[in-house]
Amino acid sequence: MNTFNKKSLYTAIAGLSALGVTGIAEAVHVNPDGLGQVLIYPYYTARQTPSTARFPNAQYNTLLSVVNSTVSAKAVKVRFLESLNSREVLDFNLYLSHNDVWTAGIVPTADGAGVVTYDKSCTTPSLTAGTVYPFVASQFSGSNADGADSSLDRTREGYIEIIEMGDIVSGSATETGVTHVSGVPPCTGLSDAVAATNTVAGSGGLFGDLTIINVNATAETSGDATALEAFTAAPLWAVPSSIHPTLADGTVLTSETYKAGAVVTATWTTGIDAVSAAMMHDTLMNEYILDSGTKSGTDWIVTYPTKRYYVSVGTGTPPKLFQRNFGASGACDDVLVAFWDREEQVKAGPPPSFSPPLPGVPPSSLCYEANVVTFNNTNVFSSKNSRNVDMGTFQNGWARINLVGGATPPIHQLISTTGQTFNGLPVIGFATATFFNGTLPAVPPSTAPTQSAYGGSYRHKYTSN
């Protein structure tokens, strides 16, 4: 029987009692077609709206899917990470037969959040349909405490990684065991020794989607997972109790990006630098909508998927790229914010910054691994970790976050072994805007009034330098 360490799924059971360019095959890159060996879902939430909100105590849930678009069965690692310091809260191995889809939901528990699935695809350990498996706090509490919140409430916001461990050998016992027969796979041939032997280098072809929904608030937003292609040229199979594979386990030491109007190929000493370079941008841009007539609100998700590989717990400066190590207020990186309304007007006064300020850090900084930036305190996702930008009377327009932030190199910079300089930070995310038009009159033949609330999501736009 597979066994887990404290952060594992078995601990949870016990608790129950992009932007990119099409790249060469040898270089890791963000695939604009959405297919890859790695999928990163930039945000999940199982928060509840405040009791004072327009829709009081309305519950958010997050739904995700991963699709195997190839003719090969695959083994993948599914990993959930909390948003403050990317501490893992759950993982397991998932097996997808050819052309298979796996779906799950992230839902609230009494103290935090957990995952539930009704899907029949094989996992190790196996997941019972309809059972909520709670996320665990063992990686940020007790001896692993990092100075931030150590309660399970911290698990209610975060992001998700799905990493391909490899293709399953055609005709093997493992392939037979994970292939659906009349809609249900037998889930045999998954013992560690057998599965490891029957796993070869993966061929990619995964894609995924994310939906954040709040039924009581009639709010829904959705988006695609960021797909990394050419992440590894070797199989990465690991036992379910292992934290591997991670984003640092890629075997490809070359990145390919679209930078300053040209395709740039660079070589690195570590796989995590190659992955970071593939997502490096110096500015991030999107729109905001705060129209009073539609009671609009806007949140931006700004996620740094590789930050945890550079940042340590404690004071001081990381060895490269990021600006500060992790403390009670996070690991803060100074950025610069600018915004305009739709008529090109700029707000008078001092440069925009985030509020409220965090203790001991500059006001214009983003401090977490998955950040929520909200505008005029609209706080669409009811995040406990959001940073607000005061837009004053500006009801709509666009904004830009400069990720270099005036930092002195080598902060917010990577330099390849082949001499290319990448400025900024590795970042993914999206914007979400919500609208509320009140209660509309009944539409015959119905006699019930209609609640008019809706929303949408928009991918960030970037520059790279």
Entry keywords:
single chain; 465 residues; mainly beta; 32 strands; disordered N terminus
Give Rg in angstroms: 22 Å
**How many domains comprise the coordinates?**
1
For the sheet with most strands, the description reads: 8 strands, antiparallel
Class per helix and strand makeup: mainly beta
Residue stretches low in confidence (pLDDT < 50, at least 5 long) are 1-24
For the terminal residues, how far apart are their CA atoms? 50 Å
Helix content: under 10%
Describe this protein's structure:
The chain is mainly beta and 465 residues long. Helices cover 6% and strands 38% of the residues. It contains four helices and 32 strands. Strands 1, 2, 4, 5, 8, 10, 11 and 14 form an eight-stranded antiparallel β-sheet that branches. The chain has a six-stranded antiparallel β-sheet with strand order 9-7-6-3-12-13. The protein has a six-stranded mixed β-sheet with strand order 22-25-24-19-30-31, with no helix packed on it. β15 and β16 (262-267) form a beta hairpin. It is globular, with a radius of gyration of 22 Å.
